[in-house]
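Exercise 7 asks you to align residues with tokens for two separate proteins.
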Amino acid sequence: MDIRILLGKTIRNYRISLGYSQEQCADMIGIDRTYLGGVERGERNISIVNLHKISLGMGIPMSEMFKKIEDQIQKQQIGYNTEEKWVHE
């Protein structure tokens, strides 16, 4: 799976688990809602600066986000189902 999609799903799952809409989260972080939506769908090649903004705004360390992504990549490589569900999509 494309790393941008994995990152987007990770960000979306964190946002939803925190109880924020896209609009609330984007306003809190200081980015455009449509940009956040594009990131969550894996359509954006997000910069490290914007990833850091999202991380700080959500109170989630970037290392934790990367760990979730790395776990998904490892599951994919050994043939597990990579569609981890934190919340209902």
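Second protein for Exercise 7:
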Amino acid sequence: MYQQVHFYWMAYESPFEQDHYLEEERWDKNAEWLKEEGFVEAGYDMMSTDGWVEGGQLINEHGYITKYNWSWKKTGRKWETS
């Protein structure tokens, strides 16, 4: 039996070059771009921030990150791309 292989796209350039968290609006635009350019159709099913986390992230009582940055409206739950 074969295991499913996951492909993911990583948001790295902007945080690295600016030494600043990725703005939520930019994240949304990147998600739309992945869909429009056929990445989702080609098997990309995840996006990542490469762990670029700083003091603005929110955590729960167990230490898990629940929001990438305090200013984001999204939580760490799965977001649909369809």
